[in-house]
Amino acid sequence: MPQTRDGSFSTDIFERYRRSEQAFVVGLMEMVVNGVSTRKVTRITEGLCGTSFSKSTVSRLTKALDEPVAGFLNRRLDAAYPFIIVDALFTKVRTDKSVVSKALLIASGIRADGYRGILGLSIGDSESFATWNEFFRGLKARGLHGVDVAVSDNHSGLREAIAKQFVGATWQRCQFHVMKNLLDHAPKKERENVTAAARLIFLATDRKEAERRYAEFMARFAETAPKSCVCLEGAFEDMFAILPLPEKYRRRLRTSNMQERQSPYN
């Protein structure tokens, strides 16, 4: 690098190239984070730059993500989170040179001031009570407290872990999962009608209105979609734990769609 004898001058041309290289490396990392395999990354870089990075080089570069990810997952949760939303997504994970399906446990939280964010992530073999219980224990060890309402699907192990780790918290059954169950049990010709009628129940503004619409649903589909009626009957009480809350809270807490983002009635 050219410079004067006393060190008062130094060219900045190398620094500019170094910044460009850093941006390129960040681009490689983002590709991997978004699910592009290391093998495909090598082909992409060859097409863009006329040269390729080996799979091992890409893997080495992405290891730079380990420290910030670990910092995020282990950060302190000092503020109270009255509302938490939990769910699991199944994703492919490479272990011992093979790709297997794993449960990605996700917990999101909403503070009293309306701030929303991901509290924690964890990879587990399944959605068992033991897996969820350990996950919640880890969140509490990092400072999670003040939980008043927990929103999730009806997985028995998950419900049991919520009841054990967040004693006194109200459980809200995810209405999106209830809708999926209703449609799974409805005849194909009635699915559109079941969806419309169920949506009216879910959007009721008070208990009395919800019960009236529920009675109408049961009467209407008793003969044409009896299994959907049975499903709704078992879920009704747990779907409306949030009704006493103001509307601005209910809208965010009806479902676990902060994780899934695919509700048919949002």
Automatic annotation (TrEMBL):
GO terms under biological process: DNA transposition
Entry's family note: Belongs to the transposase mutator family.
Function: Required for the transposition of the insertion element.
Pfam families noted in UniProt: Transposase_mut
InterPro entries: Transposase_mutator (IPR001207)
Organism, as annotated: Vulcanimicrobium alpinum
Keyword DNA-binding assigned: yes
Domain of life: Bacteria
GO terms assigned for molecular function: DNA binding; transposase activity
Keyword annotations: DNA recombination, DNA-binding, Transposable element, Transposition
Annotated protein name in UniProt: Mutator family transposase
Keyword DNA-binding: yes
